[in-house]
Amino acid sequence: MRVSRLMLVTLRDDPAEAEITSHKLLLRAGYMRRLAPGIFAYLPLLWRVLQKVSAIVREEMAAVDALETLLPQLQPADLWRRSGRWDGYTAGEGIMFHLVDRQERSLGLGPTHEEVVTELAADLLRSYRQLPVCLYQIQTKFRDEIRPRFGLMRGREFIMKDAYSFHADEACLRRTYAAMDGAYRRIFERCGLRAVAVEADSGAIGGSASQEFMVTAEAGEDLILASPDGRYAANQERAVSLPAAAVPLEVSTCQPLATPAQTSIDELCTAHGFDPTQTLKVLLLLARFAAAPPRGVLVCLRGDQQLNDVKLANAVTARCADAGALLEIVPLLADHLWDAVPFGFLGPHLEDPALRQGEARVAAAPLLRLADPSAADLEAFVCGANRSDEHLVGARWGELCPVPEVVDLRAAQPGDRCLHDPSQRLEAARGIEVGHIFQLGRKYSEALEARFTNEAGSEEPLWMGCYGIGVSRLAQAAVEQHHDADGIRWPVAIAPYTVIIVIASSQDPVQVALAEELYERLRLGGCDVLLDDRPERAGVKFKDADLIGIPWRLVVGRGAGERKVELVDRSGDTGKRELSADAALEHLRGLPGASP
Predict the structure, then answer these.
(1) Are 168 and 187 in contact, with CB atoms under 8 Å apart?
(2) pLDDT value of residue 595
(3) What is the DSSP pairing of strand 576-580 with strand 564-569?
(4) Exposure winner among 256, 429, 515, 570, fewest CB in 10 A?
(5) Helix (H) or strand (E) run with residue 471 in it
(6) Closest CA relative to residue 538, chosen from 557, 514, 563
(7) CA-to-CA distance for 410 and 312, rounded, in angstroms?
(8) Do residues 77 and 86 lie in contact, with contact meaning Cβ atoms separated by under 8 Å?
(9) Domain Aminoacyl-transfer RNA synthetases class-II family profile, which positions (predicted)?
(10) ∠579-582-584 over CA atoms, to 5°?
(11) Dmax of the chain from CA atoms?
């Protein structure tokens, strides 16, 4: 391809809407253009990158016997209602684009395809003799992001590879899950990415086990917590750890303490010399559901700990299974209540408050009471007295009130001790999620009645797995991990072109002739090669070549009469070298996409 025909438009300044380096570089280098918030056009250079990523994905999926298919993007709401996910994905801040057609039927644009593929499996897979089966697709998905940002990292439409496997038993599911784990590691390695596998929360997809693959980068939205010995790594949403030991509270009886206007743990500890580990943090929250009235939630944490919102949502969902989809959990405010509640002075012995609906009193369910182990393990503690401007010092479980149901709710933090080895302490890194694999179990097959006949001749639900890779996100993650002050530095395997030939002076017929010869030899040899034949100054061409990040640059300049060229390694590993034209071609032989 000749650059003069490439429709290449580069920018010298960072676009105002771009926030992170990879987003800035993809816009500046002419890889994509923004049409609306979270909606981008993939221009020819980026499309070549995405095709190369997709080719690697297809090869590795074929290696684990996955079958490529293409599923509809427009999905009937009925399928999602049967799985119980329609309300959660469309109500409130749900992320599914949805519409009503002219026949008054509700439809959604698929952010994922568990329902669709399970419905197909129910129709097509009827016997254990047909199993296992794994189907995958590479397709555009849609998410109605409230705040699209970071370019392709959090867009409203994106390209994704999603695979779904079906099995006769759990052991077979686990084998495929392990095979996909290996395939994913090979995909990211072949794409030139440094990725780490971490334990993850299954979120709205569900399932018994899941693992994320994170590309480590400072711009990552996710916090990875890992042990130095490499034996444990998890997304912070999922991570577990041992908190620091609490400082014992040396008191024998429970006494009231006047605490005027001391509504926070910091204010309480500063005024009276308590250590935060001696205090109890009590949070009053409101859970809203798709198919049931809202319910109050009382959460107890040790005063120095922070609440993990994902762990709380999972705990509430599991304990309110009949309430439909959990829409949100928000702080419970005074205007939600009929009876006054002393916010800032709450204790675990708070009586169930009545909820307000307009001016009417709501017959609400009792508070769902949960305590993190860090709180439940305290022998004596300082907590609110449920009276304004007063706390209790020396409160004890069993005397003040029963211990609430104990469940892990705290957010693990860098520096916490590891469960597997308390001498190890968690270290933090930022990561970009590029892949996620799940053991779904029978969640969808039971809801959608996808059943098969087993060896004994009886029917049972299929076992399922789900495996996703963000193809477009992976491309931007590669830029985030591979760039320098001059621009992108693509890994060779996914670069849009392997070599760019730059003619220093397009007015010199000797330089032009040698460049054309090299271009033809590389092209006919199957190399992905660009020829910068534009009548621009050499400096402009060099800057553009660095910006767009082609791995190898052949500069045809003053040495053209002696058939000398300059070979530049964009990665910086070997730098610049002056070689004969034939030696340069020989050096490029064997590179991915370059076999002159």
Answers:
(1) no
(2) 42
(3) antiparallel
(4) 256
(5) helix 471-481
(6) 557
(7) 9
(8) yes
(9) 47-491
(10) 50
(11) 97
Mean pLDDT per 10-residue interval, the chain, length 596 residues:
91 90 96 95 97 98 97 96 91 88 96 96 97 98 92 94 97 96 96 90 65 90 91 90 94 94 95 97 93 92 96 93 87 77 93 72 79 97 96 96 96 94 94 94 95 96 97 96 95 96 93 94 91 92 95 93 93 82 85 48
Dihedral angle sign, alpha carbons of residues 185, 186, 188, 192 = positive
Q: List strands edge to edge, sheet with 390-395.
A: 255-258, 390-395, 381-384
Identify the H or E element spanning 463.
strand 463-470
Any idea of the CA torsion for 336, 337, 340, 341, to the nearest 10 degrees?
Answer: -70
| Residue 88: predicted pLDDT | 87
Class of 3-73+110-240+428-479 in CATH: alpha beta
What residue ranges do the domains of the chain occupy? 3-73+110-240+428-479, 255-406, 497-589
> Does residue 389 come out as left (phi exceeding 0), alpha (psi in the -120 to 50 range) or beta?
left
For residue 339, the 8-state DSSP code is: S
pLDDT the model gives residue 372: 97
Strand pairing class (529-532; 233-235): unpaired
Tokens of 505: 């002076």
Task: Output the average pLDDT for the chain.
Answer: 92
Would you list the DSSP string of 533-571?
Answer: --S--HHHHHHHHHHHT-SEEEEE-GGGGGTEEEEEETT
DSSP 223: E
Question: What CATH architecture does domain 255-406 belong to?
Answer: Alpha-Beta Complex (3.90)
Torsion over CA of 250, 251, 254 and 260, rounded to 10 degrees? -70
Q: Please give the Cα distance from 372 to 142 (Å, whole number).
A: 36
Q: What does pTM read for this prediction?
A: 0.86
Separation CA 77–CA 108 (nearest Å): 6
Segment 48-100, tens digit of pLDDT: 999 999 999 999 999 999 999 999 999 999 999 999 899 889 987 789 999 99
Q: Is the dihedral of CA 146, 147, 149, 151 positive or negative?
A: positive
Half-sphere exposure of 532 (CA within 13 A, CB side): 28
Rg (CA), the chain: 29
Strands, DSSP E only, in 16-174? 32-36, 39-42, 67-68, 74-76, 98-100, 106-109, 133-142, 157-167
Alpha-helical regions (H) of 3-68: 21-28, 44-63
Looking at residue 199, what DSSP letter applies? Answer: E
Beta strands in 81-156 (DSSP E): 98-100, 106-109, 133-142
Q: Are 477 and 217 in contact (CB under 8 A)?
A: yes
Q: Which two tokens stand for residue 595?
A: 């076999």
Number of neighbours of residue 93 by Cβ within 10 angstroms:
9
DSSP annotation of 95? -
Unique residue bearing structure tokens 């370019």 = 151
CA 176/CA 199 separation, integer angstroms: 17
- The total of other beta-carbon atoms located within 10 Å of residue 77's CB is 19
Structure-token match 């709450």, residue found? 346
In whole angstroms, what separates CA 6 from the centre of its chain? 33
Third-level CATH fold of 497-589: Rossmann fold (3.40.50)
Residue 211 DSSP SS3:
strand
Q: Same fold for the domain at 255-406 and the one at 497-589?
A: no
